[in-house]
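The protein record passed on below.

***
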Amino acid sequence: MNNNLITREKLFSAFSYLEFKEYSEKIVDALKSAELNEEEKSLLEYRKLNLARINRVEKTYEPSDNIKNIISGIEKQIWMVITEDWCGDSAQNLPAIAKIASLNDNITLKIVLRDKNLDLMDLYLTDGKRSIPKLIALDEEHNEIFIWGPRPQKAQEYFDNLKNKGLVKEEIIKEIHSWYANDKCQSLESEFIKLLSNR
């Protein structure tokens, strides 16, 4: 599908991975000295936690030789990720996606903020919800190559299982982040190997 909403202007104004991190760091610094309501305080804590998670994944995830070999053969692609810096799933997956993309100069990673691009987000809903992160891989003419997200399938199955057991949101979030810590991005990498091998 060629998506008319994915314009060159939109991609040009999108963040690189490093710019997205800097954007989040600036928000955290600005909010530290601001007067916040309870919801804003909660979002600030999520952002601070997510920056720590991002740094952990950057330090601990090393792409395998398998994905390095597969990614080396990829021709020109744009990987557009729709996300927000307060999203925990994004903090666990985006650094690994960025590392994978960085293995090949033919892949350009662009990050678009969900809440400023709801028209675009609404084309990539998950079960009718604006779940993030969502990665849309595109060729140079902005034709879709593949879509991934908002989390690895094994994480989604675990999430659904916890929800069916009746756990409250806070407990589910804690369990999901424990799952990510134990998985060490291996499920995400396996899914990308399959997606990229089919191209």
Observations:
- The chain has a mean pLDDT of 92.
